[in-house]
């Protein structure tokens, strides 16, 4: 899925500004970024909105019989 941050977040790897978009998966706290230099960073559900909830494969493509998160 693709999320967009609505708050500025400070992490050990740096600052994620409000308005940044990332590929992510659902997590118990909200979302977990799963690509790029911020991979593995958790984003609280209250600090992001979902732009697209289509589940993508590792190549960023919609798999055959693609499903929604």
Features:
69 residues; mainly beta; 5-stranded antiparallel β-sheet; two-stranded antiparallel sheet; 0% helix
Average pLDDT metric: 86
Strand content: 35-45%
- SSE topology string: EEEEEEE
Straight-line N-to-C gap: 7 Å
How many whole angstroms does the radius of gyration measure?
Answer: 12 Å
Q: How would you describe the oligomerization state of the chains in this entry?
A: single chain
Query: So how many helices?
Result: 0
Alpha-beta classification: mainly beta
Count of extended strands = 7
Helix proportion: under 10%
Shape: globular
Taking the sheet with the most strands, its summary is: 5 strands, antiparallel
Summarize the structure.
The chain is mainly β and about 70 residues long.
Task: Please characterize this protein's 3D structure.
With 69 residues, this protein is an all-beta fold. The protein is built from no helices and 7 strands. The chain has a 5-stranded antiparallel sheet, with no helix packed on it. Strands 2-3 form a two-stranded antiparallel ribbon. Strand 4 and strand 5 form a beta hairpin.
Question: Layout of helices and strands, plus pairs?
Answer:
Layout (H helix, E strand, L loop, with lengths): L1 E4 L3 E3 L2 E3 L4 E6 L3 E4 L8 E3 L3 E5 L17
Antiparallel strand pairs: 1-4, 1-7, 2-3, 4-5, 5-6
